[in-house]
Amino acid sequence: METIILAILFFFFIITPHVSPEYTRPNPRPLVSRPHNRSDSEPQQVHISLAGKDHMRVSWITSDKKVQSVVEYGKASGKYEASATGESTSYHYFFYSSGEIHHVRIGPLEPSTTYYYKCGGSGPEFSFRTPPSAFPIEFVVAGDLGQTEWTTSTLAHIGAKDYDIFLLPGDLSYADTQQPLWDSFGRLVEPYASTRPWMVTEGNHEIETFPIIYPHGFKAYNSRWQMPYQESGSKSNLYYSFDVAGAHIIMLGSYTDFDVKSDQYKWLQHDLASVDRSKTPWLFALIHAPWYNSNLAHKGEGESMRKAIEQILYNARVDLVFAGHVHAYERFTRVYDNKGDQCGPMHVTIGDGGNREGLAMMFENPSPSISLYREPSFGHGRLRILNNTHAHWSWHRNNDSNAAMADEIWLESLGSYAMCKGITSSKFANDEL
Ligand SMILES: *[C@@H]1O[C@H](CO)[C@@H](O)[C@H](O)[C@H]1NC(C)=O
Ligand SMILES: *[C@@H]1O[C@H](CO)[C@@H](O)[C@H](O)[C@H]1NC(C)=O
Ligand SMILES: *[C@@H]1O[C@H](CO)[C@@H](O)[C@H](O)[C@H]1NC(C)=O
Ligand SMILES: [Fe+2]
């Protein structure tokens, strides 16, 4: 009898799904297919990423292995006054052989400028716009993207309104070792990722280890999604940083070592020490598994990384931490060491891109006081930095064919907030920082 009562109580008080009265949550949607329909020498899966000051990396794949890694580009359509040569790679995964994966770094490029470009001398012309050199700038954020009809809905909403840079806190294709799904993902995102820089970090779905044969994992991810790790002094594509306009953005690796003795930790200390808040008043970090999470999915999975790294991010006055992994949206207050703290970063979980696993419907009840908004819906976020001190964050739920803004908040940079300027936390006060 007692167990039955407890079970009923548990159901009603602990795992009651969060349901907002005006909106019925949809089911997962099927995978979309994007077959390869260009010729073997033509580029497919074209995407771009920032690659050090005033440079962009152009990445694409050709079935024809002999295509040269050359990008021709210019400021007028069809008139390419510059060209650059890069490198290509390919990989095997069991019986799968990838096409030739090309990476070419181009530049110097002017800010806020549209460039037209052609990859490998054939196929369609693409174009992108470089980010501005000063505020305002707008980031779009969505994690756990996948390649379902919800993904296409999220991407359509993202593309319907202008922005400068896409930030993805892990879990891209959900190929889960089926390598052709990396190719279809590349084709699905090309219309977006070839026109604005896509800056990604890895999630658990990128790992793809196999005992003895592929013990280190990340074969597809590292080959296809090369990020500016060398440009930011990192030894691994699994963590890096970049500057854009007046923001310094740190892309951390939740699935590589992060303990105090690790390369990642040492690199991060060095990277944080080099941040000059008078040049980059805004400072963000992205991870995959959230450190703060009141959803029942993946509870506690980010805890060991939080214990290792939270203090140095706090000491550096990071403004915002974005995470993915949990397929829902949740915004916390500024927080440090599990308590609200006006000098800590605001944490946002945004693993709501639309993958095939569906939504994480169950939140802890009651909501912890540091959690300010939570909702299991697919959608995307927008961070618009107005100037050195003010930014606006908004979250847009996928409401079928339109996107509906459901959450928003104004943020003030900790770099300009006098009270938080000094380092107050004691442990690392005498460290390199
Ligand atoms: C190739 O595929 C894309 C995306 O599915 C589609 O938009 C385009 O019309 C196709 N082109 C041809 C020639 O079939
Ligand atoms: C920064 O933007 C905010 C919001 O628009 C505005 O209130 C504030 O005055 C701006 N600050 C400066 C220095 O322009
Ligand atoms: C959501 O979509 C429904 C049906 O498409 C529409 O009636 C409703 O107005 C939309 N809500 C918002 C907030 O856009
Ligand atoms: Fe994940």
| CATH homologous superfamily descriptor of the largest domain | Metallo-dependent phosphatases
Largest sheet: 8 strands, mixed
Intertermini distance: 58 Å
Order of helices and strands: HEEEEEEEEEEEHEHEHEEHEHEEEEEEEE
What is the fold-level CATH name, i.e. the topology of the largest domain?
Purple Acid Phosphatase, chain A, domain 2
Rg result: 22 Å
Strand content: 25-35%
**Arithmetic mean of pLDDT:** 92
Taken from the alpha-carbon principal axes, the silhouette is globular
Would you count the extended β strands for me? Answer: 24
- Looking at the overall shape, the CATH architecture of the largest domain is 4-Layer Sandwich
CATH class of the largest domain: Alpha Beta
Structural class: alpha+beta
Attached small molecules: 2-acetamido-2-deoxy-beta-D-glucopyranose, fe (ii) ion
Spans with pLDDT under 50 lasting ≥5 residues?
1-21, 424-433
Proportion in helices: 10-25%
EC number: 3.1.3.2
Domain Purple acid phosphatase N-terminal: 43-130
Region (Disordered): 24-44
Domain Purple acid phosphatase C-terminal: 344-401
